[in-house]
Amino acid sequence: MNLFPRRRRAHVRFDYTRGSLGWGLARLALPSCGEQIAWNLDAVVELYWVGRLGPEYLAAVALCFMVSFFLRAIPLGFRIAGGALVAQRIGAGDDRGAALAAGQSILLTLAYTGVFAVLGYLLSPWMIALMTTDPLVRELGTAYFRMSFVFFVFYDGIATLAHVLRGAGEPGYSLVGMVASAGVATIIMPFCVFGWGQVPGMGIAGAPFAVGIGRIVGTAIVMSFLFTGRSRLKLSLGDLRLDRPLSRRILVLGWPAAAQNLLERGSNLILVRILSLFGPVPVAAFGVTNRITNVSRMPAFGVQAALRTLVGQNLGAGQPARAVQAVRLSMWVTAFFMGTTALGLFHFAPQVVLFFGLTGEGAEVGALCLRILTVGLLFESARRVLAGAFHGAANTKPPMIVEGLVRWGVEIPIGYLAAVVLGLGAAGVWWSITGGQILAGAALFGWFFWWSAREGLRTQPAALQSPVE
């Protein structure tokens, strides 16, 4: 008999439907921002080490990243829809329904990534041939692609787990997994690329190998939180069995978000293909600066993730006015942080691109590219935050419509016209991207506040209807 039983500390969960919005935003955004930094840290480390191999290696990584990024657009729709359902059901007090929604989101992601891991590995030479005619870049790209597809399931698997945890208002658990993933990849990457002692390096294939090992470690850690009851989402194997009505609902809610990302990433593929007409240096410069701007947007991604949860949970609790207040606060926070970041990147552009291995002509071209892209950084960040507000409200079509019109109606034709017809070269493509970011940010800003004032934010009945009878 235990004469001195240990008292279990009650786990107090924060209620995002009450109290200070600023504190709630900070509790969600800071871990989410840290998670996004960790998610992209290994990509930055990858650029650093691959950049030591030469510009053709950077060009191959840039092309492969754009193609794999495109292929991962569909599961992003699954996890955005799944995260919205989880958030709204948590707000409504339906923890069991939230767990089932999370399980179906994970199941759909596994099905998609498993199929495309096999197809991608087999079709790697053909895919890189679509992007470039340079024989060395094609050879390097094939090696990089094939190693990436070996770990394709884990790249998106950990991201899906992170989305459902953020929807539940528990980004700290996914942060632990992401930090572990990035830490492992960062430590082993130079050894994987260049070798260690008598162990030969894997060259360009060593970079995705290191990232993949890190993702496996991170995924295992996050899964342990979900399946051991430490998270509010107490998942069981039963939640991973197909629930047709709920999976269909995730597909219905998720297809506009998936289409939005397909439109965005598909346009990037075409713009990079136009850049490849001017040689590997502009492609390498864009590959480096595009990842730099992605990392610099981490505060905005953190706010976006937090806003999805705040809007979803407050709509689930029947508080639309509080959801709108959360959007306004998020926009002010984004304006402050991203405006400051853009000014810093513009000023220090030459030093930043030099750090990532762009030297000589590449450094000059990269600095120009980075300065052009920072002009639209604030608007692009605002657009993504507002897209998070729409996603949290389970209204995924407006971001898709704006994305399609701006990307395919403005950026691609103007980019080709400026770069090829008017002879501005690579700078014409970069200016078309910046112009599209400004236009898309302004358009979605106007749409959201017109929609919320005209119709009012309201919980989507299809989103909240519980599959648990």
TrEMBL record:
Cell cycle keyword on record: no
GO molecular function: antiporter activity; xenobiotic transmembrane transporter activity
Membrane topology designation: Multi-pass membrane protein
UniProt keyword Protein biosynthesis present: no
Record GO cellular component, one term: plasma membrane
Subcellular location, record wording: Cell membrane
Signal peptide limits: none
Membrane-spanning parts: 58-78, 99-123, 143-165, 172-196, 202-226, 269-288, 329-349, 430-450
Alphabetical keyword list: Antiport, Cell membrane, Ion transport, Membrane, Transmembrane, Transmembrane helix, Transport
BP terms from Gene Ontology: monoatomic ion transport
PANTHER family, per database record: FMN_FAD EXPORTER YEEO-RELATED, MULTIDRUG RESISTANCE PROTEIN NORM-RELATED
Name this protein carries in UniProt: Multidrug-efflux transporter
Lineage of source species: Bacteria, Pseudomonadati, Nitrospinota/Tectimicrobiota group, Candidatus Tectimicrobiota
